[in-house]
From TrEMBL:
<dbReference type="GO" id="GO:0003777">
    <property type="term" value="F:microtubule motor activity"/>
</dbReference>
<keyword id="KW-0547">Nucleotide-binding</keyword>
<dbReference type="InterPro" id="IPR027417">
    <property type="entry name" value="P-loop_NTPase"/>
</dbReference>
<feature type="domain" description="Kinesin motor">
    <location>
        <begin position="20"/>
        <end position="105"/>
    </location>
</feature>
<dbReference type="GO" id="GO:0008017">
    <property type="term" value="F:microtubule binding"/>
</dbReference>
<dbReference type="InterPro" id="IPR001752">
    <property type="entry name" value="Kinesin_motor_dom"/>
</dbReference>
<keyword id="KW-0067">ATP-binding</keyword>
<dbReference type="GO" id="GO:0005524">
    <property type="term" value="F:ATP binding"/>
</dbReference>
<dbReference type="GO" id="GO:0007018">
    <property type="term" value="P:microtubule-based movement"/>
</dbReference>
<dbReference type="InterPro" id="IPR036961">
    <property type="entry name" value="Kinesin_motor_dom_sf"/>
</dbReference>
<comment type="similarity">
    <text>Belongs to the TRAFAC class myosin-kinesin ATPase superfamily. Kinesin family.</text>
</comment>
<protein>
    <submittedName>
        <fullName>Kinesin family member 9</fullName>
    </submittedName>
</protein>
């Protein structure tokens, strides 16, 4: 907080308040969705991706096959309204109040 002086009064402003970056993933299944490759955590905040090894690259290879991500939220087959409520609503509201905000698709 910054200290400001206005005549005889002193007050604090919220300038300089730090917020953390939030990360969400939205998964929209399609007809050819790879259900066997993706596992969702029970907490709806983790996602694990597993790829089968490419046998054309040989028996011994250093191909990475597993990834695990911890996020602020996993939105599996979520509606546009739910995505807005969970992800964008606060950012849009704060932007209308004059704060910076980004949403990346």
């Amino acid at each position: 907080m910054k200290r400001r002086k206005n005549g005889d009064k002193q007050y604090f402003t919220r300038m300089g308040t730090r917020k953390k970056v939030h990360a969400f993933v939205r998964v929209k299944p399609t007809d050819d969705f790879a259900h066997e490759m993706i596992r969702y955590g029970d907490d709806n905040k983790t996602i694990d991706i597993h790829l089968k090894k490419d046998i054309r690259r040989g028996v011994v290879n250093n191909q990475q096959t597993d990834w695990s991500f911890k996020l602020d939220g996993v939105l599996h087959d979520a509606s546009q309204d739910l995505v807005y409520e969970k992800v964008a609503k606060d950012v849009v509201s704060q932007a209308l109040d004059g704060y910076n905000g980004n949403l990346i698709n």
